[in-house]
Every structure is written in structure tokens, then in C-alpha cells.
Amino acid sequence: CGVFGVIGQAEAANFVALGLHALQHRGQEAGGIVSHDPEQGFNSARRFGYVRDNFTKASLMETLPGPLAIGHVRYSTAGKKGAVIRDVQPFFGEFAMGGAAIAHNGNITNAAALRKELIQHGSIFQSSSDSECIIHLMARSFQKNIPERMKDALRRVEGAFSIVAMTRTKLIGVRDALGVRPLVLGKIGDTGWALSSETCALDIIGAEFVREIEPGEMVVITAEGVESHRPFAPAKPRFCIFEHVYFSRPDSIVGGQSIYETRRQIGVELARECPVDADIVCPVPDSGTPAAIGYSQESGIPYAMGIIRNQYTGRTFIEPTESIRNMGVLLKLNVNRALIKGKRVILVDDSVVRGTTSRKIKEMILDAGAAEVHFRIASPPTMWPCFYGVDTPERDKLLAANMNEEEMRAHLGVDSLRFISLDGLYRAAGEAKGRNNDYPQYCDACFSGEYPVEPADMIAQGFEI
Ligand code: 5GP
Ligand code: SF4
Ligand code: MG
After folding, report:
1. Active-site residues (predicted)?
2. Whole-angstrom distance, CA of residue 2 vs CA of residue 32
3. Taking Cα atoms as reference points, which of 73, 23, 75 lies closest to residue 199?
4. Ligand 2 atom 4, closest CA
5. DSSP β-ladder status, 333-335 and 218-222
6. 315-343 per-position pLDDT tens digit
7. Among all ligands shown, which has an atom nearest to the Cα of 1?
8. Distance CA 448, CA 465 (A)
9. 246 CA: nearest ligand 1 atom
10. Based on the structure, what is the number of domains in the chain?
11. pTM higher than 0.90, yes or no?
């Protein structure tokens, strides 16, 4: 998901709509905005579909007045399939001291246990979302102001969270102690501030990137400026390495390096680790493009657009059902036949999850008369589900959890299939010595099975790690 917030700008909701539009790649199912106006109080609008189809209408935006607003773009993660509007964020509630609204990116790994406890104590839930727990925990806290109540609440929450929240007068940003999901701070002109999942959404509103919110940090922003708090016990950061591979937009900056450059470097590493003789290097667009450029540059094999992407379809993986996802590949990608015919083709994609995309693409490429097909994948085999906010399927649906590399190659029906090593991926992400196996610098649980936060709810349901 993507989160965005603005304070200190007239009609803040308009800025939030633009920010959410730039974060649309993080979630395409639905979006929502909550604003606050001194006269009209809190207002909220939540809609299915793209930001541009909803939050551009004057009639809707007029209902979201005020100098303070937050928003969310959603894609549902494991266990919450089937979209219902009551699960669309931001969540907002009035309680002591005026109440608050929150937008959450990540996943709370002990939400089921918390929810049960809260319901037993009288909380009235409006949604099935894990994120709603935070509002109820805040409402039940005895602290004397909302940021302190939020600290109370978040100390009970386990898992990954980057949160943008608001009271009647404050914009609040928080990252969990490991900093699994991104969150950045921007300055708008002389008076305004923005919080965003990624820097690309600051650019769209002309905000200046100030800095990342640090893992374990809470910022409280008012007209007076930005206050920094440290509510959690210090921990070694474990940013999601898959943000580098796929999730973030290539024009965003993380840790001082552009995501594009990291992905290009992944391609360079991949060409060194897994060379093959061929005529052209083609990306599976768009997610494989920067890595294919890097592969081509390092190998000297020409880059070519062997697959053309229809720009009017969304991200396949994020489609919530299997049948739509199957269709999605054909709706989205088509082979550039004239180019492919008779060629030995290296196809570069970011990941193999279920293998659906790769199988379809292989069929299209062979159908177009390719002489050979070699898959090169910009991440290690995805063997484990993510419990921190990325929608990977259960283990039995993950190709790499059930087959070794040769079996996967045979299943996909390609001439060769190779994945970047975990060390290679770490090097591309700026860790010159690769992965520190004693204290890994990133979360890489979907590749390694080493979960930095125990997925308590899943373990209670019998999941084995
Ligand atoms: P598959 O078809 O193998 O199930 O999915 C792989 C494709 O889904 C890749 O092309 C990748 O770009 C895309 N993808 C989209 N979202 C995700 C995600 O959250 N996790 C992973 N691993 N791949 C994703
Ligand atoms: Fe990211 Fe994978 Fe960790 Fe999930 S399990 S947070 S996708 S690295
Ligand atoms: Mg892709």
C-alpha cells in the first residue's frame, strides 16, 4: 500500500490526491482520503479504483476541505481477499481529545490476537483490517495526548508499519523499529509539510525531499515544525529488500540511491553470475526493465523491446484473483514478433512467484519463433510468503517452494533459468560485502525464510517457519 499526508496547505486533500496518484503502483484496488477543517471537522471519502478516476472530481474534492489531510492507496494482502469498502483506509474515529485518522502500510503480525482481546473489552470494529486495531488501542489508552496514545498503541503492535496519521492539528508519521516499509518527509514551500511512502510522490507536488523517517522514529508535525520521538527499543534496521527489486517506483530514492540504479546494478550482477550466449536481452516490462538494461550493459548483448506492454493495464500481481491474474498477462503484454523471430532471447524479469507470468511469456515468445529462451530473474527464488505487507501467496502456490531450479526450468519449458544470488542482490543494493548472515542488513524473508518478526498470528494458525 501507499500512504501520503499533507499539513499547512490550503485544500490539503488536493495535494494528497496528487501524491496518491504518484503512489498508485503501491495499490490499485482502492483509495481514500481524510481531511480536517477547523469548521467542518473530519471528513472522509473512500472509493474503489484508481485515484485519477475518483479524487479528481470537484464534487468529491469539495467534500474534503481543510489544511490537513491524509490518504491511502490499497492493495489487499494475504487473508483479506474480496474487496469491501469498509476495509478501505484511512480509518478514522472520534474518541478522547478529538480523535484521529490513520493510514497504514505494512502488516500487523499479531492483529488477530489483538482484535480478539479488543473485542472482548468492548471495542466495536468497523472493518476486517489489521490496521483498525491501532485506532482502538489508541482510544483505550489513558495518555493525555494523541501522539502519546499512539505510542502506547504501537508498542503493543508487532510487525511492519509505516503510518501516516492525523489529529485535528497534527500530522504524524511513524515507522516500526525495523523500518520494513519506507516513509519520507518533504517540505512544501515555507509553511507546508508532506509525508509519503516514496520520494516520487513528493516530486509530483513540487515538495522538497527533506529526509527519510528513520526506523523506530515518530515525527509529530504542526505549524511550529517537526518534532522527533523514539517510542520503541532500538533495533537494527531491516528494510524490505523487495522494495528495491519490485515494489518501489524506479524514480524514488532510498538510502541516497535511486531504485532505478539499484535495479540496473541487479542486472549487472545477474550478467556476471549467470552469463549466457544469446542475441538479445529483453525485459519483461515494466518490472524487469532496469535490470535488463544492466544485464545488457554488462554482457554487451544488445537490449531490445521484445515484449510490449499495454500502458493502460495495471500491475498483474496486484490483481486479487487467480483468474484475472491469468488473463492479465495477455491483456498487458504482447510479443514484438518481427524482432523475436529466429533470435536467442534472454528475458529478464524481477521475480517468479507462481510462475504464471513466466509460462505465458515463454509460450508467446516461442510462438513468435524465438530460437532459444533464457530466463534471468532479478531476485532469488521466492520460497516463503511475506507477512509484512506484500501479497505473496501461500507456500504451496510458490513455484520455488515446491521445485528446485531444474524442475522450475522444465516446468516453464525454457532453455535455461537462473536467479540472482542473495549476496548478488545485497551487493546491488549497496552492501559491497554482500549479506551479513549474522545480522542481515535487510528483510529478505521471502527468499531466505528468516523472518525478522515472528508472524505470531500465522504460527497460531499452524504455519511452520
Ligand atoms: P507470477 O506470475 O510468477 O506469479 O508473478 C511474477 C510476476 O508478478 C512478476 O512479473 C512480477 O513483476 C510480478 N509481481 C507483482 N507483484 C509482486 C509481488 O508482490 N511479489 C512478487 N514476488 N512478484 C510480484
Ligand atoms: Fe519484503 Fe520479502 Fe521481507 Fe516481505 S518478506 S518485507 S517482501 S523482503
Ligand atoms: Mg512483472
Report:
1. 1
2. 11
3. 23
4. 386
5. unpaired
6. 655 555 666 666 667 778 999 999 999 99
7. 1
8. 11
9. 12
10. 2
11. yes
